[in-house]
Amino acid sequence: MSVATAETGIIGGIAAKFRTCPATGLKIDLAAEKLIKANAVAAVVFLLIGGLFGLLVALTRWPAVHLLPSDWFYLVLTAHGLDVLLLWILFFEIAVLYFASAVLLSCRLATPRLAWLAFLLMIVGGLMTNVAVLQGESSVMFTSYVPMKAEPHFYLGLILFAVGALVGVMVFFGTLVIARDERTYEGSVPLVTFGAITAAIIAVFTIASGAIILIPTFLWSVGYISHIDTVMYKLIWWGMGHSSQQVNVAAHVAVWYAIIAITVGAKPLSEKVSRTAFFLYILFLQLASAHHLLVEPGLSAEWRIFNTSYALYLAVLGSLIHGMTVPGAIEAAQRKNGFNNGIFEWLRKAPWNNPAFAGMFLSLVMFGFLGGISGVVLGTEQINLILHNTIYVPGHFHATVVAGTTLAFMAITYLLLPLIFQRQVIWPKLAMIQPYLFGIGVAGISLFMMGAGTLGVSRRHWDITFSDATVTFDYPATAFLMMGLNGIFAIVASLGGILYILITVGTVFFGKKVDASNVVASLGPMPEKQVSGAVHEYGSAGTWHLPGTYILVSVFFLSFVLYYFVNWKYLSEVWPLS
Amino acid sequence: MAIHPPEQTIWWNERIERGELVWIGVAFLWGVIMFSMMVYWHIDGKQNLSNEAYRIDPGVFEQRTEEFTKKFTVREDKNTGYPVAKPPAGGDVYMLARLWEWWPMLELEKGQTYRLHLSSLDWQHGFSLQPTNINLQVHPGIMHVVTLTPTETGSFGVVCNEFCGLGHHQMVGRIYVVEAGKSQ
Ligand code: HEM
Ligand SMILES: [Cu+2]
Ligand SMILES: [Cu+2]
To answer: Based on the number of CB atoms within 10 Å of its own CB, is A111 exposed (0-12), middle (13-18) or buried (19 or more)?
Structure first.
């Protein structure tokens, strides 16, 4: 069956135009396909803009370069946070949601018109907030803590954007209902879709929190409300701000599972375990907003401990489980593919030259080792005293949301280009190195920001030399060195980011058309199956033996324990306070 | 595969492998340990955040800080002209945050315990005591009372680490710590 010609047929009861994917046999609703494309393209555009802002920020924080003047620095930092964290991530997530519902379930997308409305609202809202920031009167950072005030259209843009995202999430749920009613799949939804459902459920909670806090703040900015409580604002704002990070985690873990399924043929070790791990995110995430309020006045210690640990550690448990089942599924699949010698042949012979796989694996490792461990340490009630609002915090979340989420999304792009855009990736050689370039850069900025933060360097700060301040303070020379290295690795990360954008945009416009004859080759290098040594029945059915994964997980666990207690040691050395 | 429906339709009955179960057990226990560490530190640790906080009108806080400063100022700081207040050991100490300064400067004695009162007159600020590295959030309208014991002598910076507008990076205060019975 040829790909280029669309057919009219029945998907899910109603006549819709669809094509059949030659690689997977899935029926792809053309309306869904267009929407996936539109959202992905918007995402990439905002990544470009926001990423360049990030570079400018990093170059300014490099003391020897100190690029921007102070007012521009705070403006650009506000824009950076908004464009990458909100716009890039959420547009891409909407694309992932449509993919995980309509495409993976071979279903038509519910109400494409509403989905376009959602897209439009998100664009208008996103642009409005950007305009507000660029006009210069809304340099309040993306957190916009009251009583610092931005222009009304700053908040209004965010609200429109959030409403758009909510409509998109509803379209996703609608599609699930249609697929189920009309039996476009058998049994339960695939694990990837299950992960996407997790993300979507949390997203509803997130957006509701956003509405609860942003609508009054908007009214306050135009003068209808006189006062907003500063602690309450933070509590609810982070109900959105933190939970949305769990949306990201659920989404990128789902993306990991999708990539390893397509590139090495991995299937979940146990459907039950992986699904339960996703479910833990839903159950135990909401209260994590508390760990942004660990050094705030007036909240009881019991409240802080309960909300950060009881709730948080069970969500952490979810991630720890995926941290084992994802490499485990790869190992099982690779052993089945025939790479069954020794402990690590499966890993050595993994398709490292396939950017989708390489990006996914780097994302997994860096999210776990850098982002996950630092996040738990940072969110420990007392340890937060020595890290709160230092540049350790951006160090941590560049490991989660950039090395983790962003890199995972970049990785799956290399599969979406041939499967959805039906174009062959141009410059396959450059594509091969792109995840490494970006990964190394981001690992660098995460580590050096964390290092500087441990030495007390403040986040969101224009000048750690205090050249124009009356009272000054000298940070240690190491702190300056770290901020310089951060600048250098920011350049590396930016090169990786720019390369990603050149490749994706170039591919969309100039890539060779993909059809049935070349679709499999277009997915990038795959592991050669060495059938002779192959082991049968790994994964959901049958027993398995995964020494490599156990070793990796043990190394991870030991690093975690060590680093955790090292930070308690640091804490014990500061002035006693109570 | 993860992009297809589960192979076994009744997937929730399948057996979980031992390796997976062991890891879940270890990870769960680790969570319990991390939880216990925080509780333990409240009982036996020396660095805990104070729960003592009061709603206060910024004007009232300003007035109290001014009274405190008037009463205990021992000198003007050499280069900056800021008043340096040296309260009696063990007493109440005030420091206010406003756009864009920490006021006044303080002189404390090593090994003595003080009740530090912190609040903001306008926006949120971040009290980041360097290089010892203690970081507290300061809100307008809330007075946070923190019991603090300096353990080393020297000159310490109070860097603002909550973004507070265009002068944020100029907002630095100072706490001097001297040996008991001595002065700077
Ligand atoms: C080329 C890539 C990037 C570079 C070089 C970069 C660099 C930086 C730097 C240096 C900071 C400022 C730290 C501070 O002064 O407080 C920052 C802040 C931030 N970055 Fe990035 N970043 C990059 C990509 C991203 C991406 C892809 C995301 C999100 C997905 C992201 C999210 C954020 C957020 C949310 C902040 C905090 C802004 C704030 O404090 O208000 N960054 N980034
Ligand atoms: Cu300040
Ligand atoms: Cu500040």
So the answer is: middle
Both structure tokens of A260: 């390893």
Burial-class residue B29 by CB neighbours within 10 Å (0-12, 13-18, 19+): exposed
Length of chain B: 184
- Report how far residue A499's alpha carbon sits from residue A45's, in angstroms, rounded to the nearest whole number: 13
pTM: 0.94
Q: What amino acid is encoded at B72 in this protein?
A: F
Residue A541 in this model has a pLDDT that exceeds 60:
no
Q: Mapping DSSP to helix (H, G, I), strand (E, B) and coil, where does residue A545 land?
A: coil
Give mean pLDDT, residues A431-445.
Answer: 98
Tokens of A565: 């207690």
CATH 1.20.210.10 fits A3-572, yes or no: yes
Across B104-184, where does the E strand assignment appear? 105-109, 114-120, 125-130, 134-138, 142-148, 154-160, 172-178
Q: Please spell the DSSP secondary structure of A393-417, one letter per residue.
A: HHHHHIIIIIIIIIHHHHHHHHHHH
Measured distance CA(A214)–CA(A153) in Å, rounded:
11
| AA letter at B37 | M
CA-atom Rg of chain A in angstroms:
23
Rg of chain B over CA atoms, in angstroms? 24
- The minimum-distance atom of ligand 1 relative to the CA of A143 is 41
Q: Would the CB atoms of A265 and B166 count as touching at under 8 Å?
A: no
Q: How close, in Å, is residue A526 to chain B by CA atoms?
A: 16
Whole domain around residue B110: which residue ranges? 52-178
CA–CA dist A125, A119 (Å, integer): 10
Q: How far apart are CA A71 and CA A263, in angstroms?
A: 47
- Nearest ligand 1 atom to alpha carbon A461: 15
Does the Cβ of A61 fall within 6 Å of ligand 1? yes
The CATH number assigned to the domain holding B92 equals 2.60.40.420
A438, A496 in Cβ contact below 8 A?
Answer: yes
Q: What is the pLDDT of residue A1?
A: 32
What lies within 8 Å, CB to CB, of A532 at 6+ separation is A338
Please give the residue of chain B at the shortest CA–CA distance from A229: B141
Closest CA to A110 of A27, A11, A19: A11
pLDDT digits (tens, 9 = 90+) for A373-423: 999 999 899 999 999 999 999 999 999 999 999 999 999 999 999 999 999
Backbone angles phi, psi at B145, to 5 degrees: -110, 115
A389 inside 8 A of chain B by CB? yes
Contact in structure between B66 and B103 (CB atoms under 8 Å): no
Q: How far is the CA of A127 from the centre of ligand 1 (A)?
A: 19
Work out how many domains chain B is built from and give that number: 1
Strand-strand pairing, B142-148 and B83-85: unpaired
Which ligand is nearest the CA of B103, by number? 2
Measure Cα distances from A238 to A212, A390, A402, A422 in Å: 11, 18, 19, 39
